Design the sequence.
């Protein structure tokens, strides 16, 4: 006898309201769970984060709460923002990653038309492990989760679609917070997005936030910060993901001046922390 097809209970998350289960399917599912071979569930991005009402609330919270609070202990100087203004459509903004506050500084420095239509890439297994923290960061800075243990392709494709619709992406290609304050090796996620979506990469260098709030500090301390923008980078004929991200890394190191000659210490072998060396992007 044919059974009726399940109907979705929530069109936002596509969770079925009913699904026929048999003992054998239940047992197989339980056996796979016990053996630890299940893949992580796909991470979804709720549609409310892009709604006009949410973006308006986010703009108010950033302008009158987040940015003033940030400026109270870390006054920000923005250098060469004029390089960003001629851009039309979406872009991939990248910088070094020395502090958990880097995303706030990047958004604060961007012109409004980029700031209010930007996703900030974050690891799905860090802040998105706690629902309240995920919702809070999605509201305040529009974080976008990327799985690190496999299954990143759908998330990448969704970001490319957003880029094609004049949204932008903020991503930190080192993939982990710096241990020394120096720049680490860039991973190619930003180049994949830029080349496949046909948008430029805008390099930037953030200075001073390692003194404010490095990975090992629990309470920020007062110290000025600055962000310097470079010229937008476009793929050249013959560029692949590796060569384009290498050129992007060099651009960020050039913006850093003498500090760009130094390299971050490698992550400890076997690191499994949320900010460990297995960040894919």
Sequence:
């Amino acid at each position: 006898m044919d059974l009726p097809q399940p109907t979705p209970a929530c069109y936002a998350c596509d969770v079925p309201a009913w699904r026929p289960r048999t003992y054998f399917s239940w047992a197989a599912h339980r056996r796979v769970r016990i053996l630890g071979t299940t893949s992580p569930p796909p991470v979804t991005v709720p549609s409310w984060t892009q709604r006009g009402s949410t973006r308006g609330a986010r703009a108010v919270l950033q302008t009158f709460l987040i940015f003033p609070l940030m400026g109270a202990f870390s006054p920000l100087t923005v250098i060469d923002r004029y390089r960003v203004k001629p851009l039309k459509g979406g872009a991939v903004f990248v910088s070094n990653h020395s502090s958990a506050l880097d995303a706030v500084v990047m958004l604060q420095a961007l012109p409004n038309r980029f700031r209010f239509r930007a996703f900030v890439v974050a690891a799905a297994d860090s802040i998105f492990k706690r629902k309240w923290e995920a919702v809070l960061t999605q509201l305040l800075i529009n974080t976008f989760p990327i799985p690190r243990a496999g299954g990143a392709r759908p998330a990448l494709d969704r970001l490319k679609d957003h880029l094609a619709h004049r949204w932008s992406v903020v991503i930190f290609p080192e993939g982990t917070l710096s241990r020394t304050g120096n720049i680490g090796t860039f991973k190619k996620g930003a180049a994949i997005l830029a080349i496949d979506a046909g948008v430029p990469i805008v390099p930037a260098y953030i200075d001073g936030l390692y003194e404010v709030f490095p990975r090992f500090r629990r309470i920020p301390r007062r110290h000025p910060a600055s962000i310097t923008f470079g010229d937008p980078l476009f793929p050249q004929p013959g560029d692949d993901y590796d060569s384009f991200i290498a050129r992007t890394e060099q651009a960020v190191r050039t913006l850093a001046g003498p500090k760009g000659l130094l390299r971050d210490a490698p992550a400890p072998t076997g690191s499994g922390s949320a900010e460990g060396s297995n960040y894919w992007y």
In short: The domain at 47-261 is CATH 3.40.1130.10 (Glycerol-3-phosphate (1)-acyltransferase). The first strand starts at residue 8 and ends at 10. The longest helix spans residues 52-73. Residues 3-40, 276-281 have pLDDT under 50 and may be disordered.
